[in-house]
Amino acid sequence: MVSGRFWEADPAELAQQIASETERTISIYQRVTEGDWDREGLRGDGKAMTIADLSRYLLHDLEHHLVDVDG
User: Fold this and answer.
1) φ and ψ at 6, to 5 degrees?
2) What is the pLDDT along the chain (71 residues), one digit of tens a residue?
3) Which residues pair with 39 in a beta bridge?
4) Is 51 exposed, middle or buried (0-12, 13-18, 19+ CB in 10 A)?
5) Cα(10)–Cα(4) distance, rounded to whole angstroms?
6) Contact, 57 vs 49, CB < 8 A?
7) Could you give the CA distance from residue 33 to residue 28 in angstroms, rounded to a whole number?
């Protein structure tokens, strides 16, 4: 995102933020039980999405951004 001017971020600080958010995400997923994966919630646009759907979306988004960074 150009408006975020992420290219000006301090790489060490950015790496720490990514690590922190990764740990937070892991701790959230560790609380998901076997019966929770099909639970639905609504996205901001009103579309239903399960926890499993959200997980796949998250992984896809990470892959997409890795391609962005790698060039």
Assistant:
1) -65, -25
2) 456 677 788 889 988 988 999 999 999 999 999 999 999 999 999 999 999 999 999 988 888 777 766 65
3) none
4) middle
5) 13
6) yes
7) 11
DSSP structural state of residue 9: S
User: Residue 53 burial by CB count (10 A; 0-12/13-18/19+): exposed, middle or buried?
Assistant: middle
**pLDDT given at position 36:** 96
With contact defined as beta carbons under 8 Å apart, do 21 and 13 qualify?
no
Radius of gyration of the chain (CA): 15
Residue with tokens 């990514």, as numbered in its chain: 18
